[in-house]
Write a structure and sequence with these properties.
The chain has 139 residues and is of the alpha+beta class. It contains two helices and four strands. It has a four-stranded mixed sheet.
């Protein structure tokens, strides 16, 4: 079996800037990443969360650390997303670097809730429907 380092991207939005709303969205996003890619936090190398400037109630990394003891040794980082006029508000993005056992297996990049508008080409694609040429997003 040949292992490779892969990047998994995804995003979601929240209805309001509260701890509860952010916790719900981050949990849903990470659950989707793990279930659809059949991956465990033991395979994660690092996880970077970016949030739009209107989300200040809690760090997404703090929510990830609460998920289980498996998150304790993962390098986590929270950053503020660059603001661009007219861009999607109340948005949380994630970039996960992980070791995956099959370098040719397509990766699912979840774009949930209003974040579906960021990557409509990825919104309804499950891993089995992705071609190997479309594994990595272009932006």
């Amino acid at each position: 079996m040949q292992w490779s380092v892969r990047a998994i991207r995804g995003a979601t939005t929240v209805s309001e800037n509260t701890v509860a709303a952010i916790r719900e969205a981050v949990t849903e996003l990470l659950d989707e990443v793990e279930a659809r890619n059949q991956i465990s936090p033991t395979q994660y190398i690092s996880v970077t969360f970016s949030v739009t400037r209107d989300l200040t109630a809690i760090f997404p990394a703090a929510i990830a650390r609460e998920r289980s003891p498996l998150w304790e040794d993962i390098a986590l980082l929270d950053v503020q997303q660059m603001h661009v006029e007219g861009s999607l508000s109340r948005c949380i993005r994630v970039l996960i670097h992980a070791t995956l056992p099959d370098p040719d297996r397509p990766v699912y990049h979840p774009y949930l809730r209003q974040a579906q508008h960021l990557r409509p080409d990825r919104t309804h694609l499950a891993p089995e429907r992705l071609s190997s040429s479309s594994v990595m997003p272009r932006h």
